[in-house]
């Protein structure tokens, strides 16, 4: 076993042995105004469901949704106090803010899982016709990301690593916003991208991109997004934070049953899809939007559980790429006292 593997295991063990606290039976927290950072993506559905079905209110939380277009601004909003909680991907900027004592990852959200629709690797129509028909063909091609150290950057790394392609042979195009990457791929300004199915399937249906692989083929246990809060909230607002996790977890159960596991009734599937449609692709007819939501749903971890090994792997990668300080330790980034780790 390498020193890196040993250090990773020691760091995980060192996060704490008490385990997750049981939330059942906890009295609701007194009414509190909370700002929650989200993106207009189907994978953020539990936030919408919990708002629309009153789950946050049941826990004494008055939640206001704050919309963002990338992970880094969300992390900065948590650090500055402009948002209380957020659901977003780990990024270099997020980890550096944790190293400064500003934020904590307290749970997990979307994760890749074999057999469940996940992020799809896309090629532009132009690049596909020129020979980019599988992920093995990315050598010498351009790949869209929001920022260095983003989830898109990490997915590209995992794809390249699995196919023996040096990252130096892929041109990373930093476009900052998801909408900008959609436009660049659709017009052939970039060759490839990887994005969750709700966006990918829409582009595929329009004929503006071609599917060349699945991220789950290269990162089957990837913790794509996490639940984030300020260090102050994690340490000093425990009852409020537990209330948020409890409410959000109820909505996760609704989402997974309706569109991932498909154990819900058809009526419940419709109700959940209508809630998502209110916030995502609302300019599309509901039947078409529902088909995309149900056909491209990604697993969201029950109880906001955190796939800690994957999260640790991302921290190690960010250090290896010199995008975060070597001095940042797992204890600075994660507070695993709120949820189970898997």
TrEMBL record:
Alphabetical list of SUPFAM superfamilies matching this protein: Periplasmic binding protein-like II (SSF53850)
Location(s), subcellular: Periplasm
PROSITE patterns recorded: TAT (PS51318)
Keywords: Signal
Keyword Protease among record annotations: no
Keyword Signal recorded: yes
Domain SsuA/THI5-like: 43-254
Residue ranges crossing the lipid bilayer per the database entry: none
The family this protein is said to belong to: Belongs to the bacterial solute-binding protein SsuA/TauA family.
Protein name per UniProt: ABC transporter substrate-binding protein
Organism taxonomic ancestry: Bacteria, Pseudomonadati, Pseudomonadota, Alphaproteobacteria, Hyphomicrobiales
């Amino acid at each position: 076993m390498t020193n890196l593997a040993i250090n990773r295991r020691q760091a995980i063990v060192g996060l704490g042995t008490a385990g997750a606290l049981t939330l059942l039976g906890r009295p609701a927290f007194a009414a509190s105004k909370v700002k929650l950072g989200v993106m207009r993506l189907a994978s953020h559905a539990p936030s919408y469901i919990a708002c629309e079905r009153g789950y946050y209110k049941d826990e004494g939380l008055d939640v206001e949704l704050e919309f963002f277009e990338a992970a880094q601004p969300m992390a900065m909003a948590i650090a500055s106090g402009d948002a209380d909680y957020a659901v977003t991907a780990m990024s270099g900027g997020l980890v550096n803010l944790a190293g400064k004592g500003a934020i904590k990852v307290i749970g997990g959200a979307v994760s890749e899982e074999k057999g469940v629709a996940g992020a799809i690797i896309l090629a532009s129509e132009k690049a596909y016709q020129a020979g980019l028909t599988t992920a093995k063909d990315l050598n010498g091609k351009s790949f869209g990301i929001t920022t260095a150290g983003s989830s898109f950057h990490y997915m590209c790394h995992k794809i390249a690593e699995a196919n023996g392609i040096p990252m130096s042979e892929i041109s990373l195009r930093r476009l900052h916003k998801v909408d900008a990457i959609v436009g660049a791929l659709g017009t052939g300004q970039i060759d490839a991208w990887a994005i969750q199915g709700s966006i990918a399937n829409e582009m595929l249906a329009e004929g503006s991109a071609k599917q060349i692989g699945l991220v789950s083929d290269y990162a089957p246990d990837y913790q794509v997004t996490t639940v984030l809060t300020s260090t102050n909230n994690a340490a000093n607002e425990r009852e409020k934070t537990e209330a948020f996790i409890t409410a959000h977890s109820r909505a996760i159960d609704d989402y997974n049953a309706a569109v991932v596991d498909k154990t819900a009734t058809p009526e419940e599937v419709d109700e959940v899809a209508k809630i998502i449609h209110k916030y995502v692709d609302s300019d599309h007819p509901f039947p078409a939007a529902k088909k995309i939501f149900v056909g491209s749903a990604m697993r969201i971890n029950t109880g906001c559980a955190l796939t800690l090994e994957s999260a640790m792997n991302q921290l190690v990668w960010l250090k290896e790429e010199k995008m975060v300080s070597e001095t940042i330790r797992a204890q600075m980034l994660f507070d695993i006292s709120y949820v189970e780790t898997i």
